[in-house]
Structures are given as C-alpha cells and as structure tokens.
Design goal:
Radius of gyration of chain B: 13 Å
Order of helices and strands of chain A: EEEEEEEEEEE
Oligomer: heterodimer
Distance between the termini of chain A: 41 Å
Helix content of chain A: under 10%
Structural class of chain B: mainly beta
Number of strands of chain B: 11
Shape of chain B: globular
Helix content of chain B: under 10%
C-alpha cells in the first residue's frame, strides 16, 4: 500500500526566514496531495493542496511543489511568523478509494521570534 | 473553523469496555471519514462512509465499526477496548462527486484514554 515519508521531523527557523518540508510517496497512482496544519489540541486544518496535473501551487506565503516522476512534494512557507508554529502533515490519496489519505508522520515547526 | 463537530471532547474508558464517538458533518457534505491519531504520529485512516454505507476501510480490526445517518452525521464504535486504542479520534467530512478527490475537513477530535 501507499507509504508517505516526511522530513524533517522537527524544524526551527527564525521569524522571517523560509521553511521547507519535504514528503515522498510510494504509489504512483496517487494524484491528490493535501497539507494540513495541526495546532495543539485541535484537529488538522487544510492549508494548501495540489493535484497531479499541476507542478506548483501558491497561496500568499505558502506554496507546494510536486514532482510526479520522483514521487515527492514539498511545502514552502516564506516570511515565517510565530503563528506558523505547529505540526504540519503531508498526505497522499489512497487509490482506488477516492477521498482517503495516508499521512506522513508530521513535522514540528517552531518559528523563533 | 470547519463546521465539523465531534462529541465528546474527552473520554476515559477501561480495557474491555465499548465506546461510541459522534460526528456531525459540515453542512452540504455527504461523506464522513474516521481517523485514529496516536500521540506524535499522523492520522491513520479507519474507514469512510458515503450514503450510509462503508466506502473504504483501513487496516483496523472488525471491532471498529461505524454508522452514517440520513443527515450524514456519523458514529464510530469500538468494542473490547484495548490499551493501544488510546488516541485522538478524528472525523473528517467531504463532498463526494464521482471519483474526484475532494478536500476533507477535520473536526477537533475526541481524545480517548483506555486504562
């Protein structure tokens, strides 16, 4: 079945710097890749997603890139702010089920003031 | 906020007991998925319900079962609780159209502790 790896497991950056989180997946049939942010005591919140027919998507300070050939995708956060501190999860769709995902183990991002 | 609600927020049970967790979907959504999130790990897919029928299942034993009601709310039932069942249980709702991958919106979760 699908397996998703995520790196790094922890990441500390200075406020204003950029943060990059990388994920790889195993099933070439996966075609939808959401990213979620989870704050302490809360459920995961969708921050951006990308489908396999595009290579990059951007939403203000957040961008995601996808390389289907290499089966990896990355989250880029620019101009980081303290409120970006949280655990971030990548996920990949599970074929043949349309709407369910395998999640990565998470990255704990700390933005230092 | 996503509009997905879950109850209760916290629950303590003893080994061997049974538990029922509840989820109300976001308005307009017809599909509910349940996930188990152990401490320090990513969510793991348990199963999904669409139009009141199970539409997919992860690697969980039959003592994990569910229901979806006509109003698209859902229940997760776990029988014969084990210590390893202690986790955050997340419900996610979405709107399914054909085979398109639709975004899932998560509720805040129910934290279950099994003693």
């Amino acid at each position: 079945g699908e397996n998703v790896e995520q790196h790094p497991s922890t990441l500390s950056v200075q406020e204003g710097d950029s943060a990059v989180i990388k994920c790889t997946y195993s099933d070439s049939a996966s075609n939808y890749f959401p990213w979620y942010k989870q704050e302490l005591g809360k459920g995961p919140q969708l921050i951006i997603d990308i489908r396999s027919n595009v290579g990059e998507k951007k939403d203000q300070r957040i961008a995601v890139t996808l390389n289907k050939t290499a089966k990896h995708f990355s989250l880029h956060i620019t101009e980081t702010q303290p409120e970006d501190s949280a655990v971030y999860f990548c996920a990949a769709s599970i074929p043949p089920y349309g709407q369910n995902f395998v999640f990565g183990p998470g990255t704990r991002l700390s933005v230092l003031p | 906020e996503t509009g997905v609600t879950q109850s209760p927020t916290h629950l303590i049970k003893t080994r061997g007991q049974q538990v029922t967790l509840r989820c109300s979907s976001q308005s307009g959504h017809n599909t509910v998925s349940w996930y188990q999130q152990a401490l320090g790990q990513g969510p793991q897919f348990i199963f999904q319900y669409y139009r009141e029928e199970e539409n997919g299942r992860g690697n969980f034993p039959p003592r994990f079962s569910g229901l979806q009601f006509p109003n698209y709310s859902s229940e997760l039932n776990v029988n014969a609780l084990e210590l390893d069942d202690s986790a955050l249980y997340l419900c996610a709702s979405s709107f399914k159209i054909g085979t398109e991958k639709e975004t899932q919106y998560f509720g805040p979760g129910t934290r279950l502790l099994v003693l």
